[in-house]
Amino acid sequence: MQWRSKMKHTLRSVVLASAVTVAALPGFAQERLKATWTDPDDPTTAPVTAYMHVLQDQIEKLAGTDFKVELYANGQLGDQRAMVQQVSRGSLHFANIASGVLASLGYPELGIVDMPFLFKSRAHFDATMNRNEPYITALLDNVAKETGIRVISLHPYGFRDMTTKATPVRSPADMQGLRMRTMEVVPHQKMMLALGATPVPIPYLELYTSLQTGVVDGQENPPSNILLQRFYQVQGNMTQTHHVMTVGAVITNEAWWQSLADEQRKAIIAADAEASLAHDGIGAVQDLLGVQKIRDEGVAVYTPTPAEMEEFRAATVEPTKAWAIEQFGSEFVDGFLQHMASFDDRF
User: Fold this and answer.
1) pLDDT tens, residue by residue, 67-90
2) Labelling 330: which of 43, 74, 148, 235 has CA 20 to 30 A away?
3) Which residues contact 155 (CB under 8 A, 6 or more apart)?
4) Cα-flanking dihedrals φ and ψ of residue 163, to 5°?
5) What confidence score (pLDDT) does residue 185 get?
6) How does DSSP classify residue 44?
7) Over 80: is that where the pLDDT of 20 sits?
């Protein structure tokens, strides 16, 4: 047994010495990092695409001797569920997904950020969901501990609006009996049920065909997605409900993340901060221009009155809060809402 222990020690020494020697050689191969998302590869119109291109540029500027970033737009590596699975296995380094997808697959409590009418603006989101806020730091650390997936940052992708093929929606009463596509995000589905509609989860990349063939009557998405995926071609009405902020999450494998040197992690965090500015800038511009473009495509766009918006809030906020308390406990839900309330004086 003694010789076996000695041999294992010798082999380990050889491997470590070889690794150090190879790493020190000029021209040592950079680690290739794969990054993927579902939007088309146009950084001038798609917020996540803008983010990914700036992330690539900044990582290679700040840590280019270590990393080469490869970009895969438009769902080339699969839908968001597949992305989460690949990140979990460690075969994919960065993916931008809706945070609710991760909630549905591995950490249900993260679904708390998908409750209706939580956020007042992009700036409000960035302040409350900043990874340096102690509450958010603890939440994301726990996500990593429980799932093996590190959320590098959370982004305000855009407020979601309702669209339908034939039924104008001006109040919750208009939604009775409608089949509305949702993501596989439980708070979104609970909200639709509270409005009297039937939620139908359909993968994002299959949604256009489902709208075209009448599998569902309508859907809800930010204007940028409605334009990028051309949903306006198969929907006749849009209502600016702004009921939920789509929460984007940039994720990576936690074991890989912890294997990095401190300087490498700092470089990626700095790259993410720069890329996040591009994300929010393009997103804000698309918020401004998108609705008019949708009108120009022939969609009837309706903006609810304050009284009508209050009907939507009254129908959805308390039922989804009650669901969250039932699922996660009042301590967790109250803690999250207290965190949100601590920003009330600033927004």
Assistant:
1) 999 999 999 999 999 999 999 999
2) 148
3) 47, 48, 51, 96, 247, 248, 249, 250, 276, 279, 280
4) -130, 150
5) 86
6) T
7) no
Please, what are the domains in the chain?
31-157+247-288 (3.40.190.170), 161-245+295-346 (3.40.190.170)
Cβ neighbours for 48, distance < 8 A, ≥ 6 positions apart = 37, 38, 39, 96, 155, 157, 248, 279
Token reading at 125: 């989101």
Cα–Cα dist 104/110, whole Å: 9
Four-CA torsion 49, 200, 160, 213, nearest 10 degrees: 70
Strands 94-98 and 31-36: parallel
pLDDT digits (tens, 9 = 90+) for 178-198: 999 998 888 999 999 999 999
Q: Do 128 and 119 form a contact (C-beta atoms < 8 A)? A: yes
The Cα–Cα gap between 39 and 247 comes to: 15
Single-letter amino acid, residue 260 = L
CA-closest candidate to residue 337, choices 118, 153, 85: 118
pTM (predicted TM-score): 0.85
Over residues 267-281, mean pLDDT: 97
DSSP string, 61-86: HHHTTTEEEEEE-TTTT--HHHHHHH
Q: Please name the residues in contact with 188: beta carbons below 8 A apart, sequence gap of 6 or more.
A: 100, 114, 182, 199, 220, 244
What integer pLDDT is reported at residue 344 of this predicted model?
A: 95
Cα–Cα distance measured from residue 93 to residue 190, given in angstroms and rounded to the nearest whole number: 32
Residue 16 has pLDDT above 50, yes or no: no
Is residue 9 predicted with pLDDT exceeding 50?
Answer: no
Place of tokens 């998908």: 114
| 151, β-bridge pairs | 251
H-type alpha helices, the chain: 2-24, 47-63, 80-89, 99-105, 122-128, 134-147, 186-194, 207-213, 223-228, 254-259, 262-296, 306-328, 330-341
- Consecutive H or E run containing 253: strand 245-253
Give the per-residue pLDDT at 228: 85
